Amino acid sequence: MPANKKLLILPGDGIGPEVMNEVRRVIEWMDRRRHVSFDIQEDLVGGAAIDARGMAITPATVERARAVDAVLFGAVGGPQWDSLGFAKRPELAILTLRKELGLFANLRPATVLEPLIGASTLKPEVISGLDLMIVRESTGGIYFGEPRGVDTLPDGSKRGYNTEVYTTHEIERIARVAFDLARKRQRRVCSVEKANVMETGLLWRQTVADLHARDYADVELSHMYADNCAMQLVRNPRQFDVIVSTNLFGDLLSDLASMLTGSLGMLPSATLGVPDSSGRRHALYEPIHGSAPDIAGKGIANPMAQMLSFAMLLRYSFDMEEDAAMIEGACTRVLASGLRTADVMAPGCAKVSTHVMGEAVVRELDKLAA
Ligand code: IPM
Ligand code: MG
After folding, report:
1. Residue located nearest, by CA, to atom 6 of ligand 1
2. Identified catalytic residue from 69, 241, 251, 323
3. Which of 192, 255, 274, 330 is most buried, by the most CB atoms less than 10 A from its CB?
């Protein structure tokens, strides 16, 4: 029996707890069938933590996250917390975890699963076989840059400001992640900024180009302005292998890329920190979708993005490629069998609940492991 792997589960708000329940079944299944056991802790974040403790994430929760091998995060936010104001918002839970744990590399794959090809609003011939990875910087840029604020001017009107800041070090380390990933894929990196408008964009472009010449000449590098990239992603997404970009542009482009695949409900993500001397790194895994308050509590959310986030956790934090691939394979087979949650429903398929979808994945896992 392998040594216990420490996990912190943070279901959060909205559909977060519902989809996380289906991951628990996969964890139980692994315990039973694969003899892998996890040492699981659970805590509150987001609106749930605001209600219980008055803040989106407590320092104690951050320390628990620091102490485990990996964090599995659900989603945070909902209309009931919108009026609390900026300093108390549920989103601070994820932003604080990224910053405090140094989770600078946000990996957002956009892969088209063949059974879902009809769920995309784009033509099948444009997206068939799409396998794209967005590497988004996630502890810097305008999300965290100082100065920031809203000031009141002498005439009583206001002035709001945020600052985009990137250092050579921050750009190099995210670019390295992208180049290293590309080496295991199609060896192509597209670096995205707005060097035509922003000084930080120019520094970004030069820094990535220098690093490429120095250490990654075997990878093909291109540069693109962020607005053009958005257009190219819709026009011909298969031209891309790995896209690397800033926190804000990466946020936008990854939402765009996710819809190429048909549903936000299908896409996982990993956010990785800096490896220490023993190679251990902090890591957080979360679906790209949010808390979806409009469908929360109805039992109709798609649990697959959360399940696939767990598969990424196995792959990146525990090097359990075989188990990760098994979970991914089980999800594809369930979709191929015609079961669908509402978000990916198609003519001729059977519309099922979150729970039935989760059960079906476990059944396929049983078959795959037999
Ligand atoms: C994301 C989300 C977050 C972000 C929000 C919830 C703070 O949109 O993970 O993409 O903007 O980073
Ligand atoms: Mg986003």
Report:
1. 91
2. 251
3. 192
Compute the distance between CA of residue 261 and CA of residue 128 in angstroms, rounded to an integer.
9
- Specify the ligand 1 atom closest to the Cα of 76: 6
Query: Per-residue pLDDT tens for 111-135?
Result: 998 889 988 899 999 999 999 999 9
What's the rounded Cα separation, in Å, for the pair 306 and 26? 11
What's the rounded Cα separation, in Å, for the pair 250 and 109?
A: 12
pLDDT tens readout for residues 130-176: 999 999 999 999 999 999 999 999 999 999 999 999 999 999 999 99
366 is catalytic: no
DSSP bridge pairs for 7: 40, 70
pLDDT in tens, 14-50: 999 999 999 999 999 999 998 899 999 999 999 999 9
Q: Are 312 and 304 in contact (CB under 8 A)?
A: no
Cis omega (within 30 of 0) on the bond before 2? Answer: no
Q: Ligand 2: distance of its center to the CA of 215 in Å?
A: 31
Beta strand 350-351 with 339-340: parallel, antiparallel or unpaired? Answer: parallel
pLDDT per position as a tens digit, 267-283 = 999 999 999 998 899 99
CA Rg value for the chain: 21
* pLDDT of 2 over the 70 cut: no
The encoded tokens of residue 75 equal: 């989603």
Pocket of ligand 1 (CB under 6 A): 91, 94-95, 251
Catalytic site includes residue 251: yes
pLDDT at 3: 59
CA distance 236 to 228: 12
Evaluate if residue 263 carries a pLDDT over 90. no
Which pair of structure tokens corresponds to residue 188?
Answer: 């192509």
